[in-house]
Each structure stands twice: as C-alpha cells, then as structure tokens.
C-alpha cells in the first residue's frame, strides 16, 4: 500500500472511500465501464448511453427502441401536472432553470410519478405467481387481492383521471408486441397487464384501460429492470418536459405566479370573521 501525505491525507484510503464499476478516470483518460469516452461519442445514442450506464450492458437495437419509446412517451402532460406547474411557478419567482428542474423532479413521488414503479412491482409479483398450478388469470386474482390488502383499492398503471383511453398506452403495447415477435422480449408481462385490464373491467362493469404508467411498466418489466429504476427513468423522461416548460416560462416572463389565477381565491373553512376579545 502506498501512502501520500499531501494535505495530510491517505490517498489509498481516499481511493477506497467510493467503489464504482461505472467510471474510471485519471488525467487525460475517461472510460465508462471500460470503454474510452471518445469511442462512445458519435457512436452511441443518448438512449443507449442511459441504458449502458444504468444497467451495465449495451441494449440490442430492439431493446433500445423500446427504451426510447418509453422515455419519449412520458416527457410531458401539461401544466395541470404538478411537476410541470411547479417548474413554471419556480421560474416566475426568479429561479434558475436548474432550480426549477430540481423543484419539479422532487415532487415525482409515490402519487405523482410513482405509479410506474408500483406497477412493475405488481406485475413482477403476479408473474412469479404463475406456474404449473396457477394460470395467469388465477395469478392475477391472487396478486390483485394481495396488492389491495397491502396498499388499498387503487391499482397502479390502470385508468386515468383525464383520459378515458390514454393515447400513449396502445402505441407502447403495440411496440412491445412487435418486440415479442422478434424475440427481444418475452411478452409475459404484457400478458399480465392485459389480464389485469380484463379483470378490472369485469369487476367495474366498464373498461379500466392501461395507462402510461402501466405501459411503461410493462416495457421496463419486459427488459428486466427492478422496480425502483422504473421511477428513476420516468424522472429522466419527465425532466425533458420540465426543462421545456421552465424555459418557455422564462421567455414568457411573469412574476410570482401561483397555483391560482389573479382574483381567484381558495375555499376557507375556518372561523367566520370575529372581533378579538378585549382584555
């Protein structure tokens, strides 16, 4: 072990403080998982680079097509989405683009932004329940019952408060079907999602179609991602829309825009106006 007392520190101890398989770097040399960065620049797409950095291997062309489709589909859903609204409000408070993006991404949590991660967990649980004794329909019934017992009645990835049919989901599922035909994915998780959709519709007496969160969860499940990465990749996707809206708001101007237009007030449910008691 070599020691370096420059600055009173131990260079070996400093080197061992962090361990990573992702990047190796020294003066005049940068490699990502063994590949020199100059060999990747101009040869690897941004989507391929995302997958390579996160997963550790380069995706096949078919896999990269699915990853890109999932990322493109989630970039924006308008200022009615809390993350986008927060980005725009932040800019009217005098913030910078990075502050607006950080503020917006930070609200992509369990309810707004977390359904994809939850759907991956649900799909994986149901797929694991499927075996020689339990068919996919039975596994879905078991899995949905277990989900509701643990988390309540809302099933992530299905239905939408704004769209009767989420226009993004059928397109994504069509791409999954194409990838299954070419052998890039198995199609098992797509089958799980379709069976859940069927059972939810039968129980409600009306269609409860797959939404964007469920469709991207199918893609990420088919590609073998653990559930938490589903949310992480959604954050990357939505950050594109967040940046676009923050920049647009900066160019439009405006000062101190809150969640309600000027002249609109919230509902007050407290005490009516009353005099302060004299002492």
UniProtKB/TrEMBL annotation:
Pathway: Carbohydrate metabolism; tricarboxylic acid cycle; isocitrate from oxaloacetate: step 1/2. Gene3D superfamilies: Citrate Synthase, domain 1, Cytochrome P450-Terp, domain 2. InterPro entries: Citrate_synth-like_lrg_a-sub, Citrate_synth-like_sm_a-sub, Citrate_synthase, Citrate_synthase_sf. Its EC number is 2.3.3.16. GO terms for cellular component: cytosol. The keyword Transit peptide does not apply. One of its GO terms (biological process) is carbohydrate metabolic process. Coiled coil: none annotated. It holds the Pfam family Citrate_synt. Keywords: Acyltransferase, Transferase. It comes from the Bacteria. One of its GO terms (molecular function) is citrate synthase activity. This is citrate synthase (unknown stereospecificity). It comes from Marinobacter oulmenensis. The lineage of its organism: Bacteria, Pseudomonadati, Pseudomonadota, Gammaproteobacteria, Pseudomonadales.
């Amino acid at each position: 072990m070599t020691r370096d007392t420059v600055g009173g520190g131990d260079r070996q101890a400093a080197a061992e403080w962090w361990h990573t398989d992702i990047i190796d770097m020294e003066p005049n040399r940068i490699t990502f998982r063994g590949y020199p960065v100059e060999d990747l620049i101009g040869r690897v797409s941004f989507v391929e680079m995302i997958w390579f950095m996160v997963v550790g291997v380069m995706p096949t062309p078919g896999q990269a097509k699915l990853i890109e489709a999932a990322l493109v589909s989630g970039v924006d859903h308008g200022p009615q989405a809390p993350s986008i609204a927060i980005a725009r409000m932040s800019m009217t408070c005098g913030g910078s683009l990075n502050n607006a993006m950080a503020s917006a991404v930070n609200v992509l949590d369990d309810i707004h932004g977390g359904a994809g991660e939850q759907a991956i967990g649900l799909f994986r649980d149901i797929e694991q329940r499927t075996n020689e004794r339990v068919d996919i329909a039975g596994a879905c019934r078991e899995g949905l019952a277990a989900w509701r017992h643990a988390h309540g009645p809302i099933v992530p990835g299905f239905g939408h408060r704004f769209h009767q049919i989420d226009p993004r989901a059928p397109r994504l599922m069509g791409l999954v079907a194409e990838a299954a035909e070419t052998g890039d994915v198995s199609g098992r998780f797509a089958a799980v999602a379709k069976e859940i959709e069927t059972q939810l519709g039968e129980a409600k007496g009306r269609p409860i179609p797959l939404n964007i969160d469920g469709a991207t969860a199918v893609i990420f499940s088919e590609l073998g991602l653990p559930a938490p990465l589903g949310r992480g990749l959604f954050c990357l996707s939505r950050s594109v829309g967040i940046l676009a809206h923050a920049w647009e708001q900066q160019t439009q101007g405006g000062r101190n825009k809150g969640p309600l237009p000027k002249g609109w007030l919230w509902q007050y449910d407290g005490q009516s106006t009353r005099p302060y008691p004299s002492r």
